[in-house]
Design brief:
Structural class: alpha/beta
Helix content: 40-55%
Low-confidence stretches: 1-10, 134-148
Largest sheet: 7 strands, parallel
Shape: globular
Number of strands: 18
Strand order of the largest sheet: 3-4-2-5-10-1-11
Distance between the termini: 48 Å
Mean pLDDT: 90
Length: 664
């Protein structure tokens, strides 16, 4: 649905155009038409209380375009605006660079200098009470497998203890280098485990509560999609009261929300509940839950991984046993507010209730996923994750879509601005709008593309290797390796290789490392951050990798002249969630492939292609080795999701262009 915004008179504050001009001049930049269009659209959406989706290409300056009207609204309404991002990198950019400079620039034009704070989930903050109570016994089992891991974890724990004495925020991200989840969880609690500030002996100095208090006093609260989802869908608010949300990196919203509402059941989660409750109730009752967990372990070890469309009788009986024995443990624990005057006992009981509730509720949810009369009535999918050498098998359950949740809990109650460089798939916003539930949110919405400051046809070539065979399941064909080698030689290195799997990235690295005369790095050789830094600083270097590189690399300048994409990034056919979603759409009469697989591929492909041009002076080639991008029936949809690069299927064209760039 596309609508025109209703004009709303300006307040007593300076117009948003004027504020943007002041901000851009103070930051030493220049105004861009796309940025001006976006800042006006965001302001109009806020004034009219209508939702807005904005596609803004790299280099548009979209952060300023939404921050300026957000700050203006916060001043005008005396209520904070929430900015939600998908990545830590963007959160840090906003809090450490954009907002400080913007606050200083606009301070003299507004009633006060704009204030801001970052707010994360409770598990991201050190719990003073848990830190003072020592190493919890219920996690001891995690340390028994590898002595080297125990030693490494012990050193991390010691670092956290030393840091805990000096930190002012308790924010895990302050710990550099970082620590493992195994070590950190000895010092953190989830929202469900927390005793609450009024009952906890350390409540008055709780880092999480202090962060939330700071967030309640500022104009702009920066958070992440996961916490935004928890706040919108939970019973208790975790963010300050707000009416306007800006969702940056909005192409990630559905996946992040899905992760929040996905639950897991495993032998480990059951045994954790047993350990936490074991000393608080009669042993025979706890033993029943332990036996159910052992049954689950044996069942999962023997079952094949993958989607579970029909509930096997033995699995159904095991889930019922876990559900019932967990509930008996909950009943045996007695009232939830017992021992409220004894923090130690109250903490033990809260931890036990949390673990038991998770096990019980997940078992109930999995049982409820079955028994529907038809595929169209199914709401959730259950699958077995086969695990790895370090992670045992686990059952997972997730919703087939989250559009209803977003519609009711996020879009139905607030004004939301969604923005990203990639939102218009196949040339329209319809695909993502449907996933968000926007069309049914009870408010009007508009989708606009403010363009890009880059001249794509003059700056880059999109080359599709139409002459190559279609990719198969047996790894990279020799023709693909030859094509990659020749392109890299023409570019003199300077190549980012984006592969659909880590196996393909490693195979290409092994096959080409000795063949090429330029340094070749592969994701996994070192931390991704260090690899990207090395790639950016040494021009001839090439970097191969997979998913995080498709979306997380920002390397302007001559170090990146060539982006190679091995294949159209469709989800794996055996991926339980996406395959179930495809089938569900098809059962309702839709095109499951286009609605799920093609949308996924278009989104990721556009993100990968976006790695090439990161500044006005960048030039280069994007080489897609998969001929389906121009030969398949869905190719028009995929190409319509990409920037308007000059296109060719002639192998000589990109090679000649790369050689010219190398010699200039």
């Amino acid at each position: 649905m596309r609508v025109a915004f209703t004009a709303v008179p300006d307040s007593h504050l300076p117009p948003v155009d004027e504020l943007l001009s002041i901000a851009v001049n103070a930051l030493g930049g220049s105004e861009r038409q796309g940025q001006i269009t976006m800042v006006r659209a965001v302001q109009n959406a806020i004034d009219a209380e209508e939702h807005l989706a904005v596609q803004a290409g790299t280099g548009t300056g979209k952060s300023l375009a939404y921050l300026v009207p957000s700050i203006r609204h916060a001043m005008d309404s005396d209520a904070p605006v929430v900015i939600s991002t998908a990545t830590i990198a963007l959160q840090r950019q906003l809090v450490d660079r954009d907002l400080p400079r913007l606050s200083e620039a606009l301070g003299k034009e507004l009633p006060h200098e704009p204030t801001y704070a970052i707010l994360k989930g409770r598990r991201n903050y050190l719990c003073r009470y848990k830190a003072s109570a020592g190493w919890p016994e219920d996690d001891e089992q995690d340390q028994l497998f590898d002595p080297r891991e125990v030693s490494a974890t012990g050193r991390m724990v010691q670092r956290i203890q030393e840091w805990a004495e000096e930190t002012e925020t308790g924010d895990r991200d302050e710990l550099v280098p970082g620590v493992s989840e195994q070590a950190w969880r000895q010092f953190s609690v989830s929202a469900q485990e927390c005793l609450g500030a009024s009952r906890c002996p350390s409540g008055a100095e709780c880092f999480a509560e202090l962060a939330r208090a700071r967030a309640g006093e500022v104009d702009v609260v920066v958070t992440n999609h996961a916490l935004l989802a928890i706040d919108a869908m939970g019973e208790l608010p975790v963010l300050p009261e707000h009416q306007v949300v800006v969702v940056d990196e909005a192409h990630e919203l559905v996946d992040r929300v899905t992760s929040v509402v996905t639950s897991e059941l495993s032998e480990a989660s059951v045994m954790l509940a047993v350990r936490r409750v074991g000393r608080l109730i009669d042993q025979p009752i706890a033993d029943q839950l332990m036996e159910a967990g052992e049954d689950l372990k044996a069942l999962l070890a023997a079952a094949p991984p993958g989607r579970i469309d029909e509930l096997p009788q033995v699995l159904g009986l095991t889930l019922q046993l876990i559900r019932d024995s967990a509930w008996r443990c909950v009943t045996a624990l007695g009232p939830r507010n017992a021992d409220k005057d004894d923090p130690d006992k109250a903490g033990q009981r809260k931890a036990a209730f949390t673990a038991l509730d998770e096990v019980h509720d997940t078992a109930v949810r999995m049982l409820d996923a079955y028994g529907h009369a038809s595929e169209t009535d199914r709401a959730e999918v259950v699958w077995l994750d086969g695990g790895t050498d370090r992670r045992p098998p686990a059952l997972r359950v997730a919703p087939l879509n989250v559009s209803g949740m977003l519609r009711d809990k996020l879009f139905g109650e607030r004004t939301v601005v969604l923005t990203s460089a990639t939102l218009a798939l196949g040339g329209t916003f319809d695909a993502l709008a449907a996933q968000w539930g926007l069309g049914e949110a009870g408010k009007d919405w508009q989708g606009i593309d403010v363009g890009s400051p880059f001249d794509h046809p003059r700056s880059g070539i999109l080359y599709v290797a139409k002459h190559l065979p279609q990719p198969g399941r047996d790894g990279l064909p020799q023709q693909y390796l030859d094509e990659i080698a020749e392109l890299i030689e023409a570019a003199g290195g300077r190549t980012l290789g984006l592969f659909s799997s880590m196996r393909a990235a490693k195979a290409a690295t092994e096959a080409l490392r000795d063949r090429l005369d330029v340094p070749l790095l592969c994701q996994g050789d070192d931390s991704t951050m260090l690899l990207v830094k090395q790639f950016a600083e040494d021009e001839p270097t090439c970097l191969f990798g997979t998913l995080s590189l498709w979306q997380g690399v920002d390397v302007p300048g001559p170090s990146l002249r060539l982006v190679i994409i091995d294949r159209v990034p469709f989800p794996r056919p055996d991926d339980p969630l996406t395959s179930a979603r495809q089938r569900h759409v098809a059962a309702k009469g839709g095109n499951g492939f286009m609605a799920v697989a093609a949308n996924h591929a278009a989104l990721l492909l556009a993100q990968g292609v976006g790695r090439l041009l990161r500044s006005q002076d960048d030039k280069g080639v994007i080489a897609v080795l998969d001929p389906r991008l121009v030969t398949a029936r869905y190719s028009g949809f995929l190409l319509g999701s990409l920037p308007p690069f000059w296109r060719t299927t002639d192998p000589a064209v990109p090679r000649a262009a790369l050689k010219r760039l190398t010699t200039t």
